[in-house]
């Protein structure tokens, strides 16, 4: 059988396994290994399993070894650890509290503070789902207690949690950079303006929604004094410092992204102990949770790496590039088709699974059109971000639903999400239409 045909069948098999809820790491790895074995076994025309076994095992172990020993991959456990340590040291929660103190008197101010808190959390952790889970436990119950409409109380946090995908650091950007061999530091910088633009759009959605329907966000009776607002702002300095170290250090050429992560983990730990908000038990719990999450990501990355090598072996990518080039599709049409693919997959699959499944096929196609891979990475991450709150399987929505329980059914959360999705689509169109939004900061970096 032709290797390209085997590749297409393997791709279809992965989709079927994912639809059956087989973990993405096992689906990618198992299909890639089995299909690679078949290709090598029939390479000479006759079935030779002994020859295929050696070639297949060599490919699997070499790719897995190279991935695990990748210097860039060390960023993932560092940034995951930073998120857990910062949370237990109360660095991330102080961002939300400061925003709440300053915005309480604004209509819908607590919901706005929740979005800002999610943005601040994202600027430290890099995980959208972790952001939604953590901030959902902090913000949503408080808004419901204040009498906020469940749609606003839940949707604002579910949407705000997606900011972790774009605002650096981002685990998705790290994986994209590894598999496309692009600069992760430049990807981090490229996500800043689109991330801030998205955050501003979410705040605008809340303001317009509350102004048109004041009853969904009752006024808060508590009034904070000027000294309380000042103290709350000062208390949030560690989060601001960590963000400045990450972004400023990378932009100024002082640190690589990996070095920035290591410095911030050390700084967050020292700040937590110095302020008495972090204990040795909390630090140990952070380490354990980091190990679990990192292992899950590494398994997925290893399976994806083997699958990428298998795709290269089949020669599918050149066939797709040749076919699309022969069709002479305009760039606009190509990007619309890619966006539709990601939006469709985002309704059913998790972001990492979508990315590692599609990049081996789409990146050669994008390169053949001469498009900038940094800009394309921002577009991809934005599409994955939208998928986190897109029905019927918006992961962030289910995270929030698990947090609030019966107080806000999933259909109510999705009803509120629609307004935030409209802003996401506008930002996506702006990013696709004006690449400078993504490339302005990376172009100015050293």
Automatic annotation (TrEMBL):
It is a multi-pass membrane protein. InterPro entries: DctM, TRAP_DctM. The chain crosses the membrane at residues 29-46, 67-86, 106-131, 152-176, 188-211, 232-254, 260-284, 296-317, 329-349, 361-380, 386-405, 417-441. One of its GO terms (cellular component) is plasma membrane. Part of the tripartite ATP-independent periplasmic (TRAP) transport system. It is found in: Cell inner membrane. Keywords: Cell inner membrane, Cell membrane, Membrane, Transmembrane, Transmembrane helix, Transport. It comes from the Bacteria. The gene is siaT_4. PANTHER family: C4-DICARBOXYLATE TRAP TRANSPORTER LARGE PERMEASE PROTEIN DCTM (PTHR33362:SF5), SIALIC ACID TRAP TRANSPORTER PERMEASE PROTEIN SIAT-RELATED (PTHR33362). The keyword Nuclease does not apply. Belongs to the TRAP transporter large permease family. Residues 11-435 form the TRAP C4-dicarboxylate transport system permease DctM subunit domain. It comes from Thalassovita autumnalis. GO terms for molecular function: transmembrane transporter activity. The keyword Cell inner membrane applies. The complex comprises the extracytoplasmic solute receptor protein and the two transmembrane proteins. Signal peptide: none annotated. This is TRAP transporter large permease protein.
